[in-house]
User: What shape does this take?
Amino acid sequence: MINASNLVAAAQQTTGLTNLGDEGILQALTRLVDALNNEAQLSARGEKSVEGNLTATLANRLKVEDFLAKHPQLLQRPIDKPMFVFGLPRTGTTLVINLLNQDSARRCFLRWEAFDSVPPPNASELHAGSRYEKAQAQIDMSLKYAPQISAIHLEDGDSPTECEFSMSPSFVAQYYDSMFHIPSYHRWFLNEADYLPAFRYHKRLLQLLQAEAPGRWALKNPWHPLYLNALTITYPDAQLLMTHRDPVDVVGSACSLLKAVRPMFSDSVDCKAIGENLLETFDTMIERTLAYKDTHGWDSIYDLQYADLMRDPISAIQKIYQHFGEPFTDSAQTLMQAYLANNPQGKHGRHSYSLEDYGLRSLQIRDRYKDYCERFNIAVEA
Assistant: This one.
């Protein structure tokens, strides 16, 4: 059994630090741990992995808070007009953020620095050094257990990663709901959780990371439609970009990803439960997006069609820059074109999936999200 107090004690012993910044996160940690123990059906290997991951997450947070306590001036440095890329998962957010990452004026949240944040890197360390190499080795090891993931979603140690990994140290993050079958956490996370503490830490972490490697932040997390109010309270001048794709493809692809990762932690994977979980989450994401637009105006979020992105990625990115009044330089375009040439779709294999594996049918999905597709003018297959 995993014990929340033991996790904290282990992180404190490892680091020699005690200040978590916000003791309120322990309530969320306890809720998560209870769900993992009682519902996730963790394998012996999975339980050991989860304990290690949660301890490392706490340790990194302790280091971040210690560094900020010693360098409080970093918290006075602004984060101006950060761009947030989101949408239902599997709608092109990864391609968008990887293209934005080619623009030298922008600063993305890299995978290795999400988990080993202190000390903040300088520009030369963003894509080199021992912390990057450690993260890359961990990815390579994970792919030994689940090699099929590379065809679905592959990140390198220095790739832009989801900024929900700056929310996971507050234990309020969709990441946990994806990785494990934990229905009680799922219900709490969607309907009761306070997202603001997670975003307060999110901002503190970015302020630390930009200390020696500044730039205009461009961030990606498909799940941000769940938290739009908390996000924009924390970042009032945020630039919001949402991607859209035929829900039949979205649901099948997203279910397939969860089916691929959950066996790393449990020997019992309920595919029907995966489908039900994601449909409920997607319903909430769409509902909150529409509510946000109703309050703040339809143009408060820039909508990007997956079909347009795949047809002409450079043109799609150029329109994003135009919408937000940002300069789209020749050098950025050249680097984006080079990225596309070096990373064609299907480079790491073909991603195949079937809705029927999750107790779902395409007509059912089409009917469920008919209004969503019409409201956002999403191209769907006949």
